[in-house]
Amino acid sequence: MVNLVGIDVGYGFCKVYGGIGKQFKFSAGYLEYDNDDFSLGDKKEVLEFEGKKYLMGEEAVSQGCVVSHNPNDRLRHILSILYSIARVNDGEDFEGDIVLGLPLSDKANKITLEQMSGSYSIFFNEKEIKITINKVFVLPQGGACYYDLILDDNGKVVNNFNGKQISIIDIGEKTCDFVSFLDGKLINKDSKSQLFGIDKAKQTFLDVLLKTKKVNVKFSELPRYIHNNKAEYLKEVKKLTNEIIAYISHYWQFDNYDKIFISGGGGVDTVPFFQANFNAYLIEDSQFSNARGYYKCGQNLRNS
Amino acid sequence: MWTKPEKLVKTLSVRLTQSEYDFLKDKENMNDYLRYLLQASMQKPNDAAKVMIRTELRRLLNIGDLNSPTFSSTSEPSLAIDIEQKKEIREEDEKANRGIKSMMDFQGS
């Protein structure tokens, strides 16, 4: 039975980690619907909350939902959280803690997230579930990746960077977080957020497709077009990576860092272009690094 | 004399993370100093040798160039822990705890 969950509520995907073997992601977004609207292929993608039914994940995306990019969209957060908990706990009642993240620049929403603790009654896959969230921990995105690197699943230190200056570039769908640690402490002045992510490369790639091939691609079709036009897509990724490097160069002296790690869902595509400029290390399974880090930090906090 | 990591772990009760274990498994990664420590400690296992091995391993893993472009964050459960290491781990865990709590009050921009 899971009693702690790390949830990375992203704009592209929501990543969930509840311990070894309890890791998954689903497309961000939700779509309110009535029973008569359309037939459903997979009822596991349905969540009923406060008397309304919502399609979640891939089912919502396939039905054309538009992902909210409003950071103050409380409904997006609470639906993603409840759906994550229901799935990670195999549709059983839940009582425990959750750990969430925010961009460094979005401290204003920290209290909103912390206030999501409490008891909820939902229907998941047509079964009623009680979800009791005792405590909500909120950590900065990217910062959690540092703890993903040094802690194990019990929140115990297994690697350390004592005395070292470590930086992490965390590239999400709509956000980039740049965090620095010196001897295990976050350096606030060197840690920044930007409200663009790998989505920016995808958008310019869509523009290129429209101009050169006269095709107007739906967002849900994007992965297929990227796969079939990889070289054109990577050109846009390279431009984005160089833009990120130019921005962060105002704050970082890259030579000063003992190690620079790349993380986030945008990490895999961008890391070769970072490595063309400086030594960069891709965190393993980088898309889940924040979610794992949240979980591990939660374990460490509960141990203290 | 090359000592297999399994034997090292069993004889010395040295706690190895997955990264350290992988590092040791690859003979190419051994440097002379670590080889000397292992040989000396196998002849006369003691706590000081274990601490030296652990320190040297960490130095190599944290400072030495990692050839792989990826860095694994996963770790296997400890195989054995001696008293000195328990103390060391507790201090590190507390340090991490302070770091996390401090980070929770983030004030980036």
Describe the structure.
- The complex is a heterodimer of chains A (304) and B (109).
- Chain A is an alpha+beta fold and 304 residues long.
- Chain A has helices spanning 57-62, 74-88, 110-114, 143-150, 198-213, 222-228, 230-248, 267-275, 289-303, and strands at 4-9, 13-17, 23-27, 30-33, 46-49, 52-56, 94-102, 118-124, 127-140, 165-171, 176-182, 185-186, 192-194, 259-263, 281-283.
- Helix content of chain A is 33%, strand content 28%.
- Chain A has a nine-stranded mixed beta sheet with strand order 3-2-1-7-9-8-5-6-4, sandwiched between helices.
- In chain A, helix 5 packs across helix 7 (230-248).
- The two termini of chain A are 22 Å apart.
- The mean pLDDT of chain A is 90.
- Chain B has 109 residues and is mainly α.
- Chain B is 61% helix and 2% strand.
- The A-B interface holds A 104-105, 107, 137-140, 143, 147-152, 155-162, 164, 177, 179, 181, 184-186, 188, 191-193, 258, 261, 271, 275, 280-284, 289, 292, 297, 300-301, 303-304 and B 17, 19, 58, 61-63, 66, 69-75, 77, 89, 92-97, 99-104, 106-109.
- Strand 15 of chain A pairs parallel with strand 1 (70-71) of chain B, so a sheet runs across the interface.
